[in-house]
Amino acid sequence: MTATVGTLLDDVHARAWDLCSRSSEMNEGTSQEQLAAGYLAAWPRLANAALRVLDAVRVEPVWLDDASGVREVLRAIAGEKLLASPSVAGSEVAAAASERAVLAIATRLGVIADMLSGQPAARTEVDRAASMGLQANVVAVVNAVAVTTLAALGDQREFETARWLMLGVVARSERHAVTPTLERAGRYEDVAAISSEDRSLDGSIARWLPATIAALGSPRRVTQTALQIAAGDALILIATAGTGGMAPLHPPRLPRPPARPAKGPLRPRPPAVAIPRPQRPPHR
Fold it and tell me: Is 0.70 surpassed by the pTM of this model?
């Protein structure tokens, strides 16, 4: 099964939900301070991965991109070295639980960023709406992890700076986190990780595109024949994509089954018999 951005987002949301539902549970031998330290140790990587996804698809014009506040606080966390090395006794114990759960989310966000790295800027209304939906999906996960981290921090004094950072994340990401599910859907969820051995149409385009760009961009290889070949290949790919896209809209018509032969001679229909209507008695 080919991984897509949509399937990875589903997995990330499921892991974030599981993290929130188990936030009050602590493993044996793990204190509240160690649990909080584990969350904080993974936050720089989570913030960096979320930033990469948010920056993978640029929105143009830039003033229509309303995720600047989230980016600022994520950059502050990504560069905060104290979070990556919390000075809590026994914090290495928490790395096997809370930190590992957040790192799994960060790893998948990093894969999503890699898959979207070649996407052009969102200039049309459709692309901008899809980009906003993608941002809402990512920021909702960040918001969930921030709320879980705040609950683990509690009112411990040694985590005062981290608490203010988490409060900033929650305040700036809450609006994106409450975006309705239908408004988050978009075309970027269909972006798939295509391998070099994929024989599908997506795999053919993924192999044809870089080779064609390299040929047309080289002063020695670009010729009239190369232009004709590139145009012909593009026409074939477009026609194939159009045929595959229109196939569900026009299902093939099944032939009618042959009529069954009548068994025995047909009986003639009896003639209709007129039923006499009752007549009124004559008036006296």
Answer: no
